[in-house]
């Protein structure tokens, strides 16, 4: 009778190592994922650009109001200085001063709207800045956690791989050949346990004939459904 328990020990290690490698590869993939920071950065960038635009717009309106105010002041100081002797010219200048006054009023309305817009973007920018900072902090924490998990997995693999090698060395080449072949055909799981007369892997009932063979057979008994090597821990 082949010693299936040796292969079972090997399979336990193989499964553990395979899970560790999968976990390690997932962890390493997660380490490269900075999408949350990229997303927050992109929102920040968009709001920042819009903020600059409304700010620039506001400054332009302010300059325009200032320019009109200066122009009006200059005309008015001419009027009040009594330098104008021609009544027609005086009327024309008064008319222009009034026109400019209307323009200033209209521009100031626009300026008010623009200032409100700037204020909204100030708040938006502050929020986006805070969100970007939060995203960066949690990314750093996440990366640090993942790195320590990565190191733990690597350490565990380094501990289990020599044990796996030792377990293989305990088995004959023939035994390993069968184990590797059956495992390859069955998602890496070559050995199934007999649990309540069922195969632990495919969960189907094992025919009585095979159960009898398990007690006495000197060769491997295979599950008639999934084809794995059957192993009964305690023989009745
Ligand atoms: Zn089976």
Secondary structure topology:
Layout: H1 4-31, H2 35-80, H3 87-170, H4 173-185, E1 191-195, E2 198-199, H5 208-216, E3 229-231
Parallel strand pairs: 1-3
Antiparallel strand pairs: 1-2
The chain binds zinc ion.
Residues 192, 199, 201-202, 204, 223, 225-226, 228 line the site of zinc ion.
**Low-confidence spans:** none
How big is the Rg?
Answer: 41 Å
Looking at the overall shape, the CATH architecture of the largest domain is: Orthogonal Bundle
The tally of domains stands at: 2
Top-tier CATH class of the largest domain = Mainly Alpha
Bound molecules: zinc ion
Described by strand count, sense and barrel closure, the largest sheet is: 3 strands, mixed
Strand content: under 5%
Describe the structure.
It is a single chain. This protein is mainly alpha-helical and 236 residues long. It folds into two domains: 4-22 and 172-231, no CATH class; 33-162, Helix Hairpins. The protein is built from five helices and three strands. It has a three-stranded mixed β-sheet. A hairpin with a 2-residue loop joins strand 1 (191-195) and strand 2. Helix 2 packs antiparallel against helix 3. The longest helix has 84 residues, at 87-170. Bound molecules: zinc ion (ZN). The site of zinc ion has 9 residues, from loops.
């Amino acid at each position: 009778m082949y010693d299936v328990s040796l292969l079972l020990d090997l399979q336990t290690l193989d499964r553990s190592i395979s899970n560790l490698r999968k976990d390690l590869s997932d962890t390493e993939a997660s380490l490269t994922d900075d999408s949350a920071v990229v997303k927050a950065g992109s929102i920040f960038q968009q709001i920042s650009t819009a903020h600059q635009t409304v700010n620039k717009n506001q400054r332009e309106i302010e300059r325009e109001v200032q320019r009109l105010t200066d122009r009006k002041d200059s005309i008015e100081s001419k009027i009040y200085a009594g330098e104008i002797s021609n009544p027609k010219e005086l009327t024309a200048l008064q008319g222009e001063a009034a026109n400019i006054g209307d323009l200033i009023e209209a521009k100031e309305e626009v300026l008010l709207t623009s200032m409100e817009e700037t204020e909204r973007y100030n708040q938006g920018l502050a929020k986006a800045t805070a969100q970007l900072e939060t995203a960066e902090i949690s990314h750093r924490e996440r990366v640090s956690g993942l790195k320590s998990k990565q190191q733990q997995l690597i350490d565990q693999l380094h501990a289990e791989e020599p044990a796996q090698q030792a377990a293989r060395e305990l088995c004959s080449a023939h035994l390993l050949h069968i184990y590797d072949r059956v495992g390859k055909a069955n998602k890496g799981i070559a050995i199934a346990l007999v649990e309540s007369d069922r195969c632990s892997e495919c969960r189907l009932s094992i025919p009585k004939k095979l159960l009898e063979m398990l007690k006495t057979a000197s060769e491997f008994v295979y599950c008639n459904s999934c084809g794995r090597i059957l192993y009964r821990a305690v023989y009745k």
